[in-house]
Amino acid sequence: MSPPYQPPYTLSPSTVTLIARIAEAVGQLSVRLGDARDLRLRRINRIRTIQGSLAIEGNTLSEGQISAILDGKRVIAPPREIQEARNAIAAYDRLAQWRPESAADLLAAHRTLMAGLIDDCGKWRGGGVGVMAGDQVIHMAPPARRVPLLMEQLLSWLATTDAHPLIASAVFHYEFEFIHPFSDGNGRMGRLWQTLILTRWTPLFADIPVESLVYEHQADYYRAIQASTVQSDAAPFVEFMLSRILEALAAATPQVAPSVTPQVERLLAVLQGEISRDALQSALGLHDRKSFRERYLNPALAQGLIEMSLPDKPNSRLQKYRLTDRGREQRQQLKES
Question: Residues 209, 49: contact at Cβ < 8 Å?
Fold first, then answer.
């Protein structure tokens, strides 16, 4: 009988330090996010998670549009992108139903995540695939005939490993991307399954937007995959993911209201729906366009509290502005303070 599969990875001192810092951050944040009054924050983080994971794959929907889809509202966007968002919402809603070590559950998750997008959703791939970074192929996956056995070995390792869940989740994520078991959707499935593994360690991770931080470091994400493949050691990818998890924990921490200037606070208070720059300036009773731009509009945009309706055309005469989910959360905090 051959020995059980053991993914190759090593632990550096920096990795051990990251684990300790993450554990400390989890302890500090778990009480706050478990409080009923932070349900809005949990919703915002879930939307950021979905938007970030889809954006890595080229989906252009904003946090506001995904929020609207979550609420069952009509969104004007490419049908495929809307379908991707609906699928992702359904998949993350079902996290509690799936077991990380179950092949059947993994296939069911892929079926949910890719429904209506590919013909072979919920099935191992039948042909060759590669990992792409833009137009560049950075990894050719193993032949399709080996996928069932490779996934069986990986899931068996996950079921029996005594590695810390932070390590196990990142190693699994890397190995999953190396195998690339599906014809499409491997990236978002790998990120979903790492989140699932982490939620079994602490349910807090169902509400931590790790994917949004991966999106912000997308080039480094692919470089970490490539470096791990070249070294035959998952360590570079593990360290990358742990760094993003630590950042995500910090990003999920509520910001206190005093970080918002009185000018931005006034802007948040009057912004309802989508509104043009001139109408917004008029609602604030301001006449100096330069002062409005520098003290009100630009700071709110920079903090991610508001967004443009036409982000690709910032100078369009049809441009309007609206609150982001972060902006709505901040406005509510200001009302309650």
Answer: yes
Residue 204's Cβ-side half-sphere holds a number of Cα atoms within 13 Å equal to: 20
d(CA 323, CA 44): 13
Report pLDDT digits (tens) over 266-292.
999 999 999 999 999 999 999 888 889
Residue range 13-251, CATH number? 1.10.3290.10
Kindly tell me if the per-residue pLDDT of 31 is higher than 80: no
pTM: predicted TM-score of the whole model, two decimal places: 0.74
* Residue with tokens 């470091």, as numbered in its chain: 217
Q: Where are the domains of the chain?
A: 13-251, 257-336
What pLDDT digit, counting tens, does each position of 184-216 carry?
A: 999 999 999 999 999 999 988 987 889 888 888
**DSSP for 236-285?**
HHHHHHHHHHHHHHHHTSPPPGGGS-HHHHHHHHH--SSEEHHHHHHHTT
Mean pLDDT of 253-266: 70
Phi, psi of 166 (to 5 degrees): -65, -40
How many angstroms from the chain centroid is the CA of residue 97?
20
DSSP, collapsed to helix, strand or coil, labels residue 215 as: helix
CATH topology of domain 257-336: Arc Repressor Mutant, subunit A (1.10.10)
φ and ψ at residue 328, rounded to 5 degrees: -65, -40
- Token pair, residue 90, equals 């359904």
Q: 288 burial class (0-12, 13-18, 19+ CB within 10 angstroms)? A: exposed
Q: Is 132 helix (H, G, I), strand (E, B) or coil?
A: strand
Cβ contacts of 314 within 8 Å, gap of 6 or more? 308
